[in-house]
Amino acid sequence: xxxxxxxxxxxxxxxxxxxxxxxxxxxxxxxxxxxxxxxxxxxxxxxxxxxxxxxxxxxxxxxxxxxxxxxxxxxxxxxxxxxxxxxxxxxxxxxxxxxxxxxxxxxxxxxxxxxxxxxxxxxxxxxxxxxxxxxxxxxxxxxxxxxxxxxxxxxxxxxxxxxxxxxxxxxxxxxxxxxxxxxxxxxxxxxxxxxxxxxxxxxxxxxxxxxxxxxxxxxxxxxxxxxxxxxxxxxxxxxxxxxxxxxxxxxxxxxxxxxxxxxxxxxxxxxxxxxxxxxxxxxxxxxxxxxxxxxxxxxxxxxxxxxxxxxxxxxxxxxxxxxxxxxxxxxxxxxxxxxxxxxxxxxxxxxxxx
Amino acid sequence: xxxxxxxxxxxxxxxxxxxxxxxxxxxxxxxxxxxxxxxxxxxxxxxxxxxxxxxxxxxxxxxxxxxxxxxxxxxxxxxxxxxxxxxxxxxxxxxxxxxxxxxxxxxxxxxxxxxxxxxxxxxxxxxxxxxxxxxxxxxxxxxxxxxxxxxxxxxxxxxxxxxxxxxxxxxxxxxxxxxxxxxxxxxxxxxxxxxxxxxxxxxxxxxxxxxxxxxxxxxxxxxxxxxxxxxxxxxxxxxxxxxxxxxxxxxxxxxxxxxxxxxxxxxxxxxxxxxxxxxxxxxxxxxxxxxxxxxxxxxxxxxxxxxxxxxxxxxxxxxxxxxxxxxxxxxxxxxxxxxxxxxxxxxxxxxxxx
Amino acid sequence: xxxxxxxxxxxxxxxxxxxxxxxxxxxxxxxxxxxxxxxxxxxxxxxxxxxxxxxxxxxxxxxxxxxxxxxxxxxxxxxxxxxxxxxxxxxxxxxxxxxxxxxxxxxxxxxxxxxxxxxxxxxxxxxxxxxxxxxxxxxxxxxxxxxxxxxxxxxxxxxxxxxxxxxxxxxxxxxxxxxxxxxxxxxxxxxxxxxxxxxxxxxxxxxxxxxxxxxxxxxxxxxxxxxxxxxxxxxxxxxxxxxxxxxxxxxxxxxxxxxxxxxxxxxxxxxxxxxxxxxxxxxxxxxxxxxxxxxxxxxxxxxxxxxxxxxxxxxxxxxxxxxxxxxxxxxxxxxxxxxxxxxxxxxxxxxxxx
Amino acid sequence: xxxxxxxxxxxxxxxxxxxxxxxxxxxxxxxxxxxxxxxxxxxxxxxxxxxxxxxxxxxxxxxxxxxxxxxxxxxxxxxxxxxxxxxxxxxxxxxxxxxxxxxxxxxxxxxxxxxxxxxxxxxxxxxxxxxxxxxxxxxxxxxxxxxxxxxxxxxxxxxxxxxxxxxxxxxxxxxxxxxxxxxxxxxxxxxxxxxxxxxxxxxxxxxxxxxxxxxxxxxxxxxxxxxxxxxxxxxxxxxxxxxxxxxxxxxxxxxxxxxxxxxxxxxxxxxxxxxxxxxxxxxxxxxxxxxxxxxxxxxxxxxxxxxxxxxxxxxxxxxxxxxxxxxxxxxxxxxxxxxxxxxxxxxxxxxxxx
Lengths: 354, 354, 354, 354
What we know:
Four copies of one chain form a homotetramer.
Chain A: E1 2-6, H1 7-17, E2 22-25, H2 32-44, E3 49-52, H3 56-67, E4 73-77, H4 79-84, H5 86-94, E5 99-105, H6 121-127, E6 136-138, H7 143-160, E7 163-169, H8 170-174, E8 176-180, H9 215-235, E9 239-242, E10 249-252, H10 256-270, E11 275-280, E12 282-284, H11 288-292, E13 300-305, H12 311-319, E14 325-329, H13 338-350
Parallel strand pairs in A: 2-3, 2-4, 4-5, 5-7, 6-7, 10-11, 10-13, 13-14
Antiparallel strand pairs in A: 1-8, 6-12, 9-11
Helix pairs in contact in A: 1-2, 1-7, 3-5, 10-13
């Protein structure tokens, strides 16, 4: 099916096609379309549970409970609401349950604006909650990916029994583009051997918990988690290279900003500067090695983000001081233009920093 | 005054000496002594407000409200409870209010154990809440510092109108040592021109908010915040160097672990390996330049943490690939011994990695 | 279908047969079987929404929201949990929405015991919430009625657009008896002209609210409500008379206690005292006239309750001083025996009070 | 001290004079002046704890906790907020703790209006929470009494270890009158032998709870409570008689309405109808006997309330059918005029009903 549709709606339709069975959420701009659209759709496609919880904290804990049954469950919110979910996310990661969380970022910190931003990168990728854990993080750049990544998220979430976050922003959430939807996935879940859906007589009860009083038990769980994360880091890196082959300079950017940077790169090329764009799609696992492989081939990297400079730390960790890395960013809900990015790049080159 | 006292009590007595006027909190092991001790003390030292809130979310929002009056206000919790405070912390940082938050870390993720850990470094230093903001973060290594840093925290909090976190752990919280307390600070606050304590006729109302609908306004606020952070990064770096002058190898470690590493360094020196310990005291601002200055002088760095490797990213960002950095860590509530750290160092040297 | 089953389960199976579509609740002894049974059944009979809410307050407000769509929605709890729902119940009554609330009473006040009691009569019948409103209240005396009254409750709830409460107790909830279940009712609801399920083009939006700022508007709503209550009082009185025809004394009692009183009446008759039992089934509307009609025919009334004397006020209001009314009650979770009731009656007669 | 002041402020100043040490509350119209006034005063009179809680539920539970220490603690709200407190009130009554709750009633049910009403009589007097318990209930009719009854409330609350409610309404809360304040009471509390303020070595710990698993224990507590209530019913009845001595007709009314009825009685007397007003001041304990004593002396009673008829049940219980009782009421926030009350009385007389 093809549809001209908003990003927030594409996520939602994607969830319906992906066979999601349960959604818990609480309204917040700029992602309120999700709940609104779902409420309408659930009316027609009976049997799906869509519930406006008492708060974001209630929502994420309901996700925790429902995920334990092995059903496809998801939630969505925007920056402040996601902060409220940090305890719950840590619990879900520790208990190793699959689920999808969508963050349609807005400008912060605090209540901030309702305009788009990318200033939750650190929270999302480094661990907003307590303890050593990782969500798998996917950053779509198009409305098409807003839908596609829902399907991918559930595949990864169930493969690794791990929460997945789609990290997007208010601009992509509100933007309309044509989307080709994937085929309807089955809603009914196969009985999963870890799910708590009634104990057959021939096995012990499944227990889902994140509480382990004995530290040696808790360390074993951490060792197991870290092993899983190494596997994810090995197998699930996703990224996109645009005009990178002959590039003298690389712009690193994620999400919608990568598209703006592509236009900036074209503007630069018109002026004779050979620029490529490297877009990490999976923010965790981060494509360290892929960026590192530019060492020796390029003169410098401009990292562009809608924040004060967050992913740039991972870019710097990638190149280990062997390629200069500079930053251009806008904050508080401002979306940068291709022109200002191109100009920032030219200034850094002219200044001898790149 | 001198006292043989637990770490959690030292923080509390420190708060009384520092002239703290208000505490809001919710009990959680391993920091429940704070509230218990305060409840007793507040009985005798009338006039201090000590309130067990309905939850950690209530507590941090009460801190937000009280901080707006310019009073010395603080809260404390342990890892899961701190996760619940992330939205509130982002609001307080955005509204530029002074306060103190103490995190007595326990093993995670999830409910985890009640044993000590350092696995909230990322959450604390990189931003557990949404948006671009920083707390000033101090990591005590002794019970003495547990008390001293309370005084320092309030000085920094009011100087920069910024939340300060003391990041410690369950072992230091429960450990007893002799503490020399500083002199009693004044409780009554001087009228601060930004505080919301009644509007005199000759000025406009003070408004404390983190909501700014217009993105250009919000960007200006972010620019102002970032300028403040640059100032903090310039002036407020604190660290300790132990036996670093002639060292061939440096162990980086924070908090209690730095003391264990000092013993490990002594063990190594007994075996003829010249090892020093570098202890960041302020985790934000992080002493990047001070660690960088080891480049060319040492053979390698072993970073030791009670987690899966978090501060190591900042250590690597410091040396920019010019000094090898390896990691040794324990997780889930296990405290490493000097012997195993020394052995880990020897193995890395023997394996040619350091 | 016939089944040997607990009272709490009979309510639950009754709800499934009655075509209930949604249940929100929070566990509390002695009615936890409801949620447990539902969780199991909902697994097999897909499409029914069963949700453990964050609290009783969340549950009743979810009931409020769901009831607005015209679906069959219900909740259940025990005494303290029902107290938490009082604001929500007042809202639902004011907004004139149909729903079912089951109170499996336990001994109070406060947390009290988990044993059976009837001490929420006043709360239920006189208005535990604020404002002038009434729930329709049904008090079952058998496990069979526990099931039957669910069907009846929804018929009344939808007929009058009014919340209905089944007021029962922990003893009946835990007691097992044979139940003949009624036929499966349709789950799908006919489109109701007041429900908020999407506005057709040819009418105004349905608005469900209990907020009316203008007092004359609010008085009109109250006049409308009172008119409805008069209608209910006229048409929906239900009661049972047992051995009343030739009785010299009447015992008034509701719920399970009425059965114990029936045995007490038999004991009394064996001793030559002609005793009947009058059991109000609908507590609101209360059968004032029916009790009043005993005036002049009997020598006295003994009101028996598992509380300190609550329904007795309505009994006294019925007889208007023309028949003596005495009381026998047990409190705090104690169930009276037929013997002690019979003895109490004999004592009152011997003492000349009846 | 004498002051021209609003009713809501008179309660608040009264609380300061009564030596109240702690207030927890949450804002709601029409009683928001309480918290606002307190916030200002507490600034100047340091040492009093004034806290805006997270919700009414938080507030009443904080009252529960603070009352356990034997301090003078109070809260206030309006109708919907009071409904949210019902569980907590039942707990406090069961645990036998002194405190003051002020209900500045508004029109209901539901969110209703913000205009005055008396429709929470049943909730207040019969038991809005679960279980057999009573608050002592005082209904002021003047701004002077709004202040005086605070002092009286604390005397009664501590004498009987029982929660006291001042039941007033939005009109009296907003009305301004001259108030003569009583003398400042001591704030510091004498050590009470039941309070939980630190255990001396020579006695057992005081335990404050409302949970008693064993029903025979819980029954003993109920027997004790009922004995206390009988004592209160014997000693603490308060009422006012106005022009009752020669009256042929009595108007019963409480609170502000009693004053309007006094004017209505004067109007009636101008027309030759001898009317008196009987005003219950304590609604619990209710002056049954005092009203009963009119039997045989008067021709009839008109009960007037700002609700659909609630106190009338207690009036009818008083006269036991021996004096006709009719009702006149306004609902939803409408205050009746003396003229319409007088007319209602005349009509009832003309119609032969009185």
